[in-house]
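**Protein fold record**
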Amino acid sequence: MKKIANYVTPTLCVVAIVFSVAAFNKTCAANQQPGTNEVAQVAAVPAGQPVDLTYAADKALPSVVHIKYVQNSKIQTVKVQRDPFEDFFDPFGGFFGRGQGGTQERKVQTPKKEATGSGVIISADGYIVTNNHVVDGADELTVSLTDNKEYSARIIGTDKTTDLALIKIDGKNLPAIRIADSDGVKVGEWVLAIGNPMGLNNTVTAGIISAKARTLGANGVESFIQTDAAINAGNSGGALVNTRGELVGINAMLYSQTGSYSGYGFAIPTNMMNKVVDDLKQYGTVQRAMIGISGVDVKRYVDSEKDKGNEVDLGTMEGIYVAEVVENSAAQEAGIEKGDVITEVDGQKVQKFGDLSGIIAQKRPGDKVSLTYLHNKKEHTKTVTLKNEQGNTKVVKNADIDVLGADFRPVNEAQMKQLGISYGLEVIKVSGGRMKESGIQKGFIIQRVNDQPMKTVEDMENAVKEASTSADQVLIIKGIFPTGKRGYYVVQLQND
């Protein structure tokens, strides 16, 4: 089981853990089943009466799938401690790069690795939502339905920031789940968690919504639904449903000191999911809007200042204390300054950071929002245009490796011995593009890009995609020339 983050409060230290049982670690939003006119008919339960959850389980179970993850065996070069007796038998030991600093490189074959998780069918033609950590790095994905039918799945897109992924199987008339408005769920409302925990497929557990808009520090954008429905390893990507069998969240993690269920689980709300799914389908990457601040819940800020012996009066105890404003951001254009408190977005109160994250996560760059904030305890309201991480409102696209205008291949054994290196990508052709503009020539061996090791062409592809959606859109390339001299280049990806 993969550990996501350590989250510490003054009274409790717990670990947020994702649920894949790993060896290593326009979405249909109507309350109507796609392809039918059926609408859920669930009578309101009188106060004090037992809740019958059988209808919800019956409607939702067929939509939750089992996902098997496989990463095939691979040959990798690793550094190992040198045998102290090696030089006794080999007077040239280390001379040809076999031993450097007490270590040497060896080729090893990694074992085949498998994992399992869950997913939710959201359309009758085979689109399935799951967690990014369930599919990240997979060479093969196999989806099993409740009727034991199996399908090979392909990844449509992933988003590490929200820990969501969209995959697709080739099927027709599949049992797609109804999707509810997650903003409408209430604390205390009964819910079911459905998934495949610990190898126990098609498992249903019940509980209530314990809290909304939780932030845990595990992902970049968070506004979790908290529940006490039992969730364990293998539930990742599974469904959190209401008493009508409608999806309200995608199960993502738990709080635990032991690695198994001990009270609370957390799900990504469907309104955030819908936005991510639509973006992955339309653009291939998430169009993430930003206000352009860093901050903290007002109460946390006030409490931290009291601990330092400082008295603070912000005019409210609810909202987001602004600790920093990004230059040229939507917040700066609104006139927001450090020390201000954001209290509302589009008329919705923001009592804590999770509220703000949840609202903005449903927006795109170019969308206009109304910001209400306190400056010196006086209220102001302004309409601003949200921007992307690059400071504009353009559509952000993943750049393809072709933008570099070069071809690459991993270095061979002779090159590694000659240059005393254990990995790298040789530039075997430069025909134009960003590489030529930056002065990189054939023969240069790239070892690191933006501080990430470059061992395969896939590593370069990933580096280009990640940099193309970042604020700077820059590749810092470090490597070595055939002569042994080291060098670096700065490659700009954006158009002037």
User: Anything to note?
Assistant: The first helix runs from residue 54 to 60. The first strand starts at residue 3 and ends at 8. Residues 5 and 218 are 5 Å apart (CA to CA). The chain is about 15% helix and 35% strand.
